[in-house]
Every structure is written in structure tokens, then in C-alpha cells.
Amino acid sequence: MTERETLLLREFKERLDKLIGLHQKMKVERQLLFEEKTRLNEQINLLTISNQDLTKKMEDLKFAKSLTGANDDSHEAKIKINRLVREIDKCISLLNK
């Protein structure tokens, strides 16, 4: 082998080693990102459930407040109660079929 070929071979090996090192580093980084993604998805699910619970509680509180509130609120309460009664009537009619 000539000296030039030896230098080219050594340079190739160095570049290959560097490339293998970068590949290993990227595999580790990919795994870390995958784990973070999984953790964040779980956190999103928990926050979504919490948000739904809080929204339901807020609606319940608004309804309760409208039952005990001023005349404007009592009108809204009557509308909501009428809507609930209609839903119950629909359910009863379905059960009677």
C-alpha cells in the first residue's frame, strides 16, 4: 500500500468512527425524546381529564347559582330545567316502546 492509500484509509476509518459515534448519540437522543413524548402524552391525558372534570363542576355551579340567583338567572334556570324535563320525557318515551 502506498502512503497516500494508507492516509486515505486512516481518514476513512476516522470518519467512519465519527459517523458511528454520531449514530449512537442520535439513537440515545431518539430514545430520550420518545420517552419524553410518552410522558408528555400522559400528562396531556391527565390534564384533559382534569379539564373535563373542572368544566363539569363549573357548569354544575353555574346551574346551582342560577337556581338561587336573581330574576335574570332564574329565567336561565327555568330554561335549563325545561330542557332537562324534555330529555327525561324522551327517555321515558323510549323506555315505554
Task: Please render the helix and strand layout as text.
Blueprint: H1 3-68, H2 71-96
Radius of gyration: 33 Å
Structural class based on helices, strands and sheet pairing:
mainly alpha
Tell the overall outline: rod-shaped
| Multimer state | single chain
Task: Kindly state the percentage of residues in helix.
Answer: over 70%
Low-confidence stretches: none
- What's the total number of strands? 0
Report the portion of residues in β strands: under 5%
N→C terminal distance: 95 Å
Summed over residues and divided by their number, the pLDDT gives a mean of 89
How would you describe what is shown here?
This protein has one domain (3-96). It is built from two helices and no strands. The protein has helices spanning 3-68, 71-96. The termini are far apart. The mean pLDDT is 89.
Q: Characteristics of this structure?
A:
single chain; 97 residues; mainly alpha
